[in-house]
C-alpha cells in the first residue's frame, strides 16, 4: 500500500515554494506528485536527495499526460539531479517521486483490460490486446 501526496511544483514567483515542510514531504513511506514542476524538477530532486532520500528512489517525469504527444521519462533522484531533463516542451508536467513509481507498468505491460477509446500511436498494441481479451 502506498500513500501519495500532491504538491505544487512552483510558487507564484516561479521557484520552489518556500513554505513547504520538506521533512514531511520527503517521507520515505509516501510518494509525492509535483504538478507544474517542469522548471523546478532538478531543484525538487536535489532537495529530496539533500534531505536524505536514497539516490535510487524512482522518479517519473510525465508531460502532456492523456494527450497524443504524451511523454514519460523514468529515472532516479540521483540521475535526474546530475543532469537536465531531456524534455524541451512547454506542456503540462507532473513529477512523481517515490517507491510507487518504481512499480509503474506501461500500457503494454499491464495485464488487465485497458479502455482504448483514446487511441494514440503510443497505445497501438493496446487495441490489439483488448480485442484478443474479449
From TrEMBL:
GO terms for molecular function: uroporphyrin-III C-methyltransferase activity. GO terms for biological process: siroheme biosynthetic process. Keywords: Porphyrin biosynthesis. This is Tetrapyrrole methylase domain-containing protein.
